[in-house]
Design brief:
Layout lengths: L3 E6 L11 H14 L3 E8 L2 H6 L1 E9 L7 E8 L2 E7 L1 H4 L17 H17 L9 E5 H4 L2 H8 L5 E6 L7 E2 L20 E2 L2 E3 H8 L2 E4 L2 H6 L10 H6 L4 E3 L30 H10 L10 E8 L5 H6 L1 H6 L3 E8 L1 H13 L4 E5 L3 H10 L2 E4 L9 H8 L2 E5 L2 H6 L5 H6 L5 E3 L4 H16 L1 H13 L5 H25 L1
Helix pairs in contact: 4-6, 10-14, 15-19
Function: Synthesizes alpha-1,4-glucan chains using ADP-glucose.
Family: Belongs to the glycosyltransferase 1 family. Bacterial/plant glycogen synthase subfamily.
Pfam families: Glyco_transf_5, Glycos_transf_1
């Protein structure tokens, strides 16, 4: 079996730059694919954090003018990652978050900043770097999603294309008058091209023009084809359903490993599970919670937003506290939700602990020290925190949507009797349903043998990239075979 070459293009890549789960996926998948005869090069913008982390590097491609300034593509490595870094200081040499200014508003030239990423990906896919001619161009989310359009309207052809939708809610919509400045001909502004409700749709372009579409769980792939959950793309996705598939995410089980994790207070495994108790005590200390070993500690690691259902959790706090639980929450997002949880921490000292922001080390400590991890999302393409929770023995308490439904086995009577349950699920996404789930979790927690079984079932669950990587490898090889068959038929 010949080795395939894949160019992965994304705006984030762990551990170089991360604002969410996208970075975890793009950072871990290349390593998982390497053992399957697939070589991945990751194209990433040259943010300051990326440039400073490079080990060596040489210019593989020079671009005299890329949306207002010169740029070059650096071939480099960082740890185990093989990289192409788009070094364009006029676009990326900026402080802080990749997408927003210090005041929290979007950079006004984001259309060009991420079109540059996509255009560069298309150039490489066309063969601009002879030393790396990819068989597959795999783009992630809207920030890289114009690449298939640049290939289509550039006229040169190139690698087969795959787009992965990590969250359909983020679409990349920009004014129609940017069509020419972005380098597209007038005919590209059509329903069969980049036009979406009178604007230029970055994600829409990839959904229309990519050879294959994937999203990050089978259930989410079905949900986004429905009118009520398709966010304006349901018709297009139903039309392209034969080219759409859902492949569950995994997590990097080297980074997320309770037996070796340097960020947690005590290491443990299924055989040494009692050692986990020290992590709970440490977590209670970090969040200012009362040192009560018998209290059920509910952890949250999340963006604070309507999508994530954190308003429902805020409404359900009286039930959570009434059941004797404690809350340890790490997250940032909507200002009103931040204020509500801060106020709850002030009102309930020792019972509610809140840290606004994101801290990777604290996220690990929540997974290792919580008894349960709450993910009350209204929709969830896949979710990674519940996978980490399984890995660390924190029982997931989740809504029955998207990837949460695909990864957690509810502790219903039959699952408990069969000894296969791994978490507590609720539906629909309402305060009342969450309150019932909290009460159910409290009841299960009081039966220590049952709760321990849930925890150990989680530890035994394979949440690695092993199976998902095989699915991606099969998809890539199917595309290459299709291309080969098509070219043979036209020869």
């Amino acid at each position: 079996m010949s080795r395939l070459k894949v160019l992965s293009a994304a705006s984030e890549l762990y551990p170089l730059v991360k604002t969410g789960g996208l970075a975890d996926v793009t950072g871990a998948l290349p390593g998982a694919l390497s053992g399957l005869e697939i070589d991945v090069r990751s194209l990433i913008p040259g943010y300051p954090s990326v440039i400073s982390a490079l080990e060596g590097g040489e210019t593989a491609l020079s671009i005299p003018d890329l949306f207002g300034g010169p740029a070059r593509v650096l071939a480099a490595t960082a740890g185990a990652l093989d990289l192409f870094v788009l070094d364009a200081p006029h676009l990326y040499d900026r402080p802080g978050n990749p997408y927003t200014q210090p005041d929290g508003t979007d950079w006004p030239d984001n259309a060009f900043r991420f079109a540059a990423l996509a255009k560069t990906a298309a150039l490489i896919a066309e063969g601009a770097i002879p030393a790396f001619q990819p068989d597959i161009l795999h783009v992630h989310d809207w920030q890289a999603a114009l690449a298939p359009a640049y290939l289509r309207y550039g006229g040169k052809g190139g690698a087969a294309t795959v787009v992965t939708v990590h969250n359909l809610a983020f679409q990349g919509q920009f004014p129609a008058e940017l069509l020419g400045p972005l380098g597209f001909p007038p005919e590209a502004f059509s329903i069969g091209g980049v036009e979406h409700y009178g604007m230029i749709g970055f994600l829409k372009a990839a959904l229309r023009l990519s050879d294959r579409i994937t999203t990050v769980s089978p259930s989410y792939a079905q949900e986004i084809q429905r009118t009520e959950t398709g966010m304006g793309f349901d018709g297009l996705l139903r039309e392209r359903a034969a080219r759409l598939s859902g492949i569950l995410n995994g997590i990097d089980t080297g980074v997320w490993n309770p037996e070796t994790d340097p960020r947690i207070a005590a290491h443990y495994s299924a055989k040494t599970f009692d050692a986990r108790a020290k992590n709970k005590t440490t977590l209670q200390g970090i969040f200012g919670l009362d040192a009560e070993p018998g209290a059920l500690v509910v952890g949250v690691v999340s963006r604070l937003s309507w999508q994530k259902g954190l308003d429902i959790l805020a409404e359900a706090l009286p039930v959570l506290l009434g059941e004797g639980m404690q809350l340890a929450l790490l997250g940032a997002g909507d200002a009103d939700l931040e204020a509500r949880f801060r106020a709850a921490a002030v009102a309930h000292p020792g019972r509610v602990g809140v840290r606004i922001g994101y801290d990777e080390a604290v996220a690990h400590r929540i997974q290792a020290g919580s008894d349960a991890l709450a993910v009350p999302s209204r929709f969830e393409p896949c979710g990674l925190t519940q996978l980490c929770a399984l890995r660390y023995g924190a029982v997931p308490l989740v809504a029955r949507v998207g990837g949460l439904a695909d990864t957690i086995i509810d502790a219903n009577e039959m699952a408990l009797a069969a000894g296969v349950a791994t978490g507590v699920m609720f539906q629909p996404g309402t305060r009342e349903s969450l309150e019932l789930a909290l009460c159910k979790a409290a009841s299960l927690f009081r039966d220590r043998d049952t709760w321990r079984r849930l925890q150990l079932n989680g530890l035994a669950t394979d949440v690695s990239w092993r199976a998902p990587a095989k699915r991606y490898a099969l998809l890539y090889r199917e595309l290459v075979a299709e291309r080969s068959t098509a070219s043979g038929a036209t020869a």
